Amino acid sequence: MRLREPGVFTVDVAAGELSGAATRYRKTFGDLAGLYADEAAFRRLLDERGADAVAYEVTDHKPSSDAGDMIIGVTRMAPGKVGAEYFMTRGHIHAKADRPEMYYGESGHGLMLLESPDGEVRTVELRPRTLCYVPPYWIHRSVNVGTDDLVMTFAYPADSGQDYDIIAKAGGMRRRIVDDGTGGWTAVDNADWRPRSAALVEALYGEAA
Ligand SMILES: O=P(O)(O)OC[C@H]1O[C@H](O)[C@H](O)[C@@H](O)[C@@H]1O
Ligand SMILES: [Fe+2]
């Protein structure tokens, strides 16, 4: 049996990264076209910051993509809004939909926005030392509802994969996280959202249905 070597990494909370991790994934504002409700505000943001400005960045350790192995890393998200809508990640369901994930708040104030295949919605607030469990089959997206960088450590099974189309095909997630008018957050309906067909929901659940 050829074993992998143990790894040790440092969560650099101030830098918002996993020091020593080999891979880095960056999403710029230019990558996030179509995500936000207020398109004019989105164009203004691109003009002000430039399409290449980093919206969020992930540093992670991906030892393999084997079933039973694990990917660990750190996400850092900038604070801000597009119109009333707080900055968020693209969001996904795992390509192997029955794979879970955990997120641990390191700094900042965030939310995990979750949506089940048949359109149930949950929000979990993330603050330092909050551990959020994302169960199998839930679409998930992080939202920075604070005024500082949101930094989270995460871990998920190495064979999970990410499917982004599930959100795009539904016209986004069912709810949008917006400023409540006093600097807090509230969830509002996304008028563009369309329910998934029963056949698609069943296909996602596969043999577990
Ligand atoms: O994949 P996105 O929806 O763009 O979110 C960015 C990242 O969020 C989390 O940190 C996940 O664990 C990463 O695997 C993911 O890549
Ligand atoms: Fe995930």
TrEMBL record:
List, in alphabetical order, the Gene Ontology terms for molecular function in this entry.
Answer: glucose-6-phosphate isomerase activity; iron ion binding
Gene Ontology cellular-component terms listed: cytoplasm
Q: Where is each Glucose-6-phosphate isomerase prokaryote domain found?
A: 27-193
Q: Which reaction does it catalyse?
A: alpha-D-glucose 6-phosphate = beta-D-fructose 6-phosphate
Please give the Pfam families that the UniProt record associates with this protein: GPI
Question: Sorted alphabetically, which InterPro entries does this protein's record hold?
Answer: G6P_isomerase_archaea/bacteria, G6P_isomerase_prok, RmlC-like_jellyroll, RmlC_Cupin_sf
Transmembrane segments in this chain: where? Answer: none
Q: Which CDD domains match?
A: cupin_PGI
List where in the cell it is found.
Answer: Cytoplasm
| Family annotation (SUPFAM superfamilies) | RmlC-like cupins (SSF51182)
Which pathway is it part of?
A: Carbohydrate degradation; glycolysis; D-glyceraldehyde 3-phosphate and glycerone phosphate from D-glucose: step 2/4
Q: How does it assemble?
A: Homodimer.
Into which family does the record put it? Belongs to the archaeal-type GPI family.
Q: What is this protein called?
A: Glucose-6-phosphate isomerase
Q: Which organism is it from?
A: Plantimonas leprariae
Q: What is the lineage of its organism?
A: Bacteria, Pseudomonadati, Pseudomonadota, Alphaproteobacteria, Hyphomicrobiales
